[in-house]
């Protein structure tokens, strides 16, 4: 859980469920939800969340399982660290 965000998994679950409800009220589906807490990665019924790797990304080889972006920075979910890469 990130600094400034929910401090417990139960608070994170409530935040996620609230966001899902708000999106659903507007006719949208919450997508690309990420957390460093594995419990929050699962779908509403406890199943693994659907992969966000689109077919085109898979075909181009640009789909990444390990690396994620957070506000444009590389985020390692397992270590919960942000990094910046300089060319």
What attributes does this structure have?
87 residues, alpha+beta, three-stranded antiparallel β-sheet, 31% helix, globular
Query: What assembly state would you assign to the polypeptide chains in this entry?
Result: single chain
Number of strands: 3
Number of separate helices: 3
Which structural class is indicated by helix and strand composition?
alpha+beta
Write out the strand line-up for the largest beta sheet, numbering strands in chain order: 1-2-3
In helices, the fraction of residues equals 25-40%
Task: Describe the structure in your own words.
The chain has 87 residues and is an alpha+beta fold. It has helices at residues 9-25, 38-41, 55-60; strands at residues 67-70, 73-76, 81-83. A three-stranded antiparallel sheet has the order 1-2-3, with no helix packed on it. The longest helix is centred in the N-terminal third of the chain and has 17 residues, at 9-25. It is globular, with a radius of gyration of 14 Å. The termini are far apart.
In a few lines, what is going on in this structure?
The chain contains three helices and three strands. The protein is α+β, with helices and mostly antiparallel strands and 87 residues long.
Secondary structure layout:
Elements: H1 9-25, H2 38-41, H3 55-60, E1 67-70, E2 73-76, E3 81-83
Antiparallel strand pairs: 1-2, 2-3
